[in-house]
Amino acid sequence: MPFTPILPAMLAIFLCAACVPPMLVNRPPPAQEPPAASRSYPPPPPVARATPIVPHEIHISAACKRTEEDGFREEAMVRVSHNSVQTLTWKLWVSRRGSCHFDLDEFKQVQQTPHIELHAVDGSGCKLMVWQDPRRITLAHASCEKHCTPGIYEQAWPVLFDPKSGACAEIR
Fold first, then answer.
1. What does the alpha-carbon distance between residue 111 and residue 84 come to, in Å, rounded to a whole number?
2. Using an 8 Å Cβ cutoff, are 116 and 129 in contact?
3. What is d(CA 166, CA 77) in angstroms, rounded to the nearest whole number?
4. Is the distance from CB of 131 to CB of 147 less than 8 angstroms?
5. 53: CB partners within 8 A, 6+ apart
6. Residue 34 is inside which H or E element, if any?
7. pLDDT confidence of residue 170
8. Which residues contact 149 (CB under 8 A, 6 or more apart)?
9. What does 100-130 look like in DSSP terms, one character per residue?
């Protein structure tokens, strides 16, 4: 058989093809990812929602006066009869940095159930809220920066009353 230059070229191609790893030779084309709108993702986990406040007929004559180790101090007096606020005066101090002060004559009661709500008459948007759970009665505020020394509002916590004694509730 006569020697032709085509034979060594074919032999070289055959030997090179044998040296290539099979995964590169028989590799399927990359899968195309579906557009973002058609991808199916698992649904997000359910959002934990706060349990609603159970309406209670609130009757309390309470006074809480205490000073915490960190300098937080509060003096609060409240009297509520049949979910109607009769008396309310509340002052709290955030260490020596400042204080907040709330008096009933600066508010108008706008709601009795499921929680008591009072709005500031000055139009500032400040709200005071009172509600009861099995362990305590809470007096809280929202959007009341104008009733506080500048810069301390974020540390101004609610006051908690023991529903049986009317004294300060345990925080534990």
1. 9
2. yes
3. 9
4. no
5. 114, 115, 131, 133
6. none
7. 83
8. 94, 97, 98, 99, 100
9. EEEEGGGEEEEE-SSSEEEEETTSS--EEEE
Whole-angstrom distance, CA of residue 134 vs CA of residue 87:
23
Q: How many CA atoms lie within 13 A of 132 on its CB side?
A: 16
User: Which tokens is 129 given?
Assistant: 């809220």
For residue 90, the tally of other CB atoms under 10 A from its CB is 21
Look at residue 149 and give its three-state secondary structure.
coil
Q: pLDDT over 90 for what percent of the chain?
A: 58
Q: 47-75 pLDDT, tens per residue?
A: 555 556 667 789 999 999 999 888 899 99
Is pTM beyond 0.85? Reply is no
Confidence of residue 171 (pLDDT cuts 50, 70, 90): confident
Q: Is omega for the bond preceding 114 within 30 degrees of 0, making it cis? A: yes
Q: Which amino acid is at 151?
A: G
C-beta separation of 156 from 141 below 8 A: yes
Structural contact between residues 100 and 149, judged by C-beta atoms closer than 8 angstroms: yes
What confidence category does residue 45 fall into, taking pLDDT thresholds of 50, 70 and 90?
low
Is the pLDDT at 94 greater than 50? The verdict is yes
